[in-house]
Amino acid sequence: MATPIMNVMIGAVRKAARSLQRDYGELSNLQVSQKAPGDYVTAADKKCDKILREELQKARPDYTFLTEESGAIKGSDPDHRFIIDPIDGTMNFMHAVPVFAITVALERKNEIVAGVTYNPISDEMFTAEKGSGAFMNNRRLRVAARRELHEALVAYEIPNRGSKDLPLSRAEIGVLQARVNGIRGMGSVALGLGYLAAGRVDALVCRNIQSWDIAAGVLLVREAGGFTADCDSEANPLETGNIAGGNADLLPLLKQALKDARTA
Ligand code: IPD
Ligand code: CA
Questions:
Q1: Distances (CA, A) of 64 to 89, 107, 210, 241
Q2: What's the CATH code, domain 149-263?
Q3: Closest-lying ligand to the alpha carbon of 184?
Q4: Are strands 32-36 and 39-42 parallel, antiparallel or unpaired?
Q5: Are the CB atoms for 231 and 252 separated by under 8 Å?
Q6: DSSP tag of 151
Q7: Residue 96 class from Cβ within 10 Å (0-12 exposed, 13-18 middle, 19+ buried)?
Q8: Which residues face 41 on adjacent strands?
């Protein structure tokens, strides 16, 4: 049984998804602008952002918002904040690669307590509430149990043109290729975290990311029995934007591999 807030979040996401599905079917008509080299925003991102804000505001008029396309919107209740990315994986979306998601998290007093990540093309709805487990389309999720790096399939987000992380990512991929079973660049870290929660991938690395890309996913992984951490330190990845994830055995091995790449 979904709680009232989860019903509100899922309802908003489903409504926004219908707009996104229509735009996905007519990509050639889509307006695209470039925020920075390799960083795009489409008219679909903005439309989806607006629908999410309107639907969530209707149900929770006092809450504060942080969205990728609208920035910070102050509400009269500073303790509750929706953190939204209307499309995580915009480049995939623009190229008709069906790996992108709407992702919405609810933060209460600086703690993520609910998260929804939805791929509107595969119709996969990842949901989690603090203390209640993680689910995909109502099926309970559990991170994979593989304990050795050489068995692991790792989602590594490959930075786009213009990123300051290009040399570091090459070094990290180089080290990982020698130690892990395989590497995939998903193009949507929000879905990558959903896949980690679902045990489809065993570990994940993504650098230089914003809190709206990973807020829901961090909770999904935790509620599926996994862990996330900053790539390089004990800091909070929601603050540093550098995230590594896996089960209790794999995460330390992954972080060691990243350290070896940094110091090589
Ligand atoms: C992108 C995705 C992707 C990551 C890129 C981000 P956006 O976010 O999170 O996984 O590798 O660096 O820009 O722009 O599609 O919301
Ligand atoms: Ca986005």
A1: 24, 10, 17, 21
A2: 3.40.190.80
A3: 1
A4: antiparallel
A5: no
A6: G
A7: exposed
A8: 33
Q: Look at domain 4-140 and name its CATH class.
A: alpha beta
Nearest CA to ligand 1 atom 1: 89
* DSSP strand pairing (227-230 vs 243-246): antiparallel
The pLDDT score that the predictor gives to residue 252 is 98
According to the model, what pLDDT value does residue 72 have?
Answer: 97
DSSP code of 231?
A: S
Burial of 57 (0-12, 13-18, 19+ CB in 10 A): middle
* Ligand 2 centroid to residue 221 C-alpha, Å: 20
Q: Tens of pLDDT along 53-81?
A: 999 999 999 999 999 999 999 999 999 99
Both tokens assigned to 82: 């929706």
What is the model's pTM?
A: 0.97
Among 161, 209, 211, 243, which is best to mutate for testing ligand 1, by the most ligand atoms less than 8 A from CB? 209
Candidate from 49, 117, 188 with most ligand 1 atoms within 8 A of CB, to mutate: 188
Beta bridge partners of 124: 119
Unique residue bearing structure tokens 């045990």: 199
- Residues 207-229: pLDDT tens digits? 999 999 999 999 999 999 999 99
Cβ–Cβ under 8 Å, residues 230 and 243: yes
Cβ pair 249, 224 in contact under 8 A = no
Kindly list the domain boundaries of the chain, sorted by start residue.
Answer: 4-140, 149-263
Q: Residues 53, 102: contact at Cβ < 8 Å? A: no
